[in-house]
Amino acid sequence: MAESNETLGLKEFQLHDKDTGSADVQVALLTRRIEHLTEHLKTNLKDHSSRRGLLKMVAQRRSLLDYLSKTKADRYKQLIDKLNLRK
């Protein structure tokens, strides 16, 4: 069930039917995981290992977004609009 739920939201970020590794898809997946983990940390304040994982995911997403902004500016702008990210 979780797999089908994830694939429904990723269709709009894929560049073609079998696209699973493009920067757009990776940013969308990381954003979903970051939102989920943020909710978890609101209730579990002392879960420092999850907080460390969250910071690593945010850094990974930031580097992917930097890559997109340097190479494909139009895709970058569409992606941050779809995901409601700042900038």
Plain-language structure description:
With 87 residues, the chain is mostly helical. The chain has a single domain, classed as Orthogonal Bundle (Helix Hairpins), CATH 1.10.287. Helix 2 runs parallel beside helix 4 and helix 3 packs antiparallel against helix 4. The radius of gyration is 14 Å and the shape is globular. The N and C termini lie far apart (33 Å). The mean pLDDT is 90.
**Percent in helix:** over 70%
| Count of DSSP-assigned helices | 4
- Sequence of secondary-structure elements: HHHH
Pairing-aware structural class of the strands and helices?
Answer: mainly alpha
Rg of Cα set = 14 Å
The first-level CATH class name: Mainly Alpha
Distance between the termini: 33 Å
Q: Do you know the CATH topology?
A: Helix Hairpins
Which homologous superfamily in CATH is the superfamily? S15/NS1, RNA-binding
What summary fits the major beta sheet?
A: none
Which key phrases capture this entry?
single chain; 87 residues; mainly alpha; 0% strand
List the helices and strands and how they pair.
Blueprint: H1 2-10, H2 23-43, H3 48-71, H4 73-83
Helix pairs in contact: 2-3, 2-4, 3-4
